[in-house]
Amino acid sequence: MIKHPVIAVGIAVAVTLALAGCGSASGQGDEQELTVFAAASLTDTFTRLAEEFEKDHPGVKVTTSFGGSSDLVAQIEDGAPADVFASADTKNMDKLGDLATDPQDFASNTLEIATPPGNPAKITGFQDLAEDGTKVVVCAAEVPCGSATAEMETKTGVDIEPVSEEQSVSDVLAKVTSGDADAGLVYVTDVAAAGDTVTGVEFEEADQVVNTYPISALEGADETDLAQEFVDLVLSETGQKVLSDAGFGQP
Questions:
Q1: Superfamily grouping for domain 111-208
Q2: What is d(CA 160, CA 84) in angstroms, rounded to the nearest whole number?
Q3: Which of 21, 189, 237, 241 is deepest in the core (most CB within 10 A)?
Q4: pLDDT tens-place string over residues 29-42
Q5: Where does residue 14 rank: exposed (0-12), middle (13-18), buried (19+ CB within 10 A)?
Q6: What residue range is the signal peptide (predicted)?
Q7: Which one of 3.90.1150.10, 3.40.190.10, 3.60.110.10, 3.30.420.10 gives the CATH number of domain 31-108+213-245?
Q8: What is residue 228's predicted lDDT score, i.e. its pLDDT?
Q9: Cα separation of 32 and 11, whole Å?
Q10: Is the pTM of this model over 0.70?
Q11: 213 labeled binding residue
């Protein structure tokens, strides 16, 4: 039996579209996703490194989640699907125990005072944060920047009475930039990343407390090989330059 030409063409087009659709679905299914949990102070640098990683790994999507290191640890312990974790201190990395396969130190950071632009409260040093009437915001004690602040108070004998304690350096900066605080204690790198939205005030005691940042692929990661490759990127010359340019020190 001879098929009508129009019907034959219609069938051919339908088959072609069906095959194309199958190919498209297969392509989407082949995309790999790498999930990286990192301290809030790493937001700018790890966003850049994620873009670099995607460029060098076609078909890989890097999903980043930033926050206070202690909050991220709690999420990982609760089963959040993270492949890599970068902490702002060794204490929170240590909490993960065997879940962190091989932690490697990759950067360091120190504290700096952030004030609203122009420093209206005329903060000149760490001791000024204890002055009556000065509204200061710090990180909560369980967060690395909060732990560093508490250690700094002990070393200097300065007792700060903050108006609020936040769960990440990002939250501290938000309080400062919104005008809710005269000053906030964050990292040197956070002040640099904030640009003109804050004024940074360095203080001479800052180098007495140094936070070391470790990174590790996580046990049970969905993308074990990719996780290690991302860790290797952070530790590489390329990764170290990105971190150095942002103001991070050597580990």
A1: Periplasmic binding protein-like II (3.40.190.10)
A2: 35
A3: 189
A4: 578 999 999 999 99
A5: exposed
A6: 1-20
A7: 3.40.190.10
A8: 97
A9: 35
A10: yes
A11: no
What stretch(es) of the chain map to CATH 3.40.190.10? 31-108+213-245, 111-208
Residue 28: per-residue pLDDT: 45
Percent of the chain surpassing pLDDT 70: 88
Q: Do the annotations mark residue 169 as ligand-binding?
A: yes
Annotated binding-site residue? 41: yes
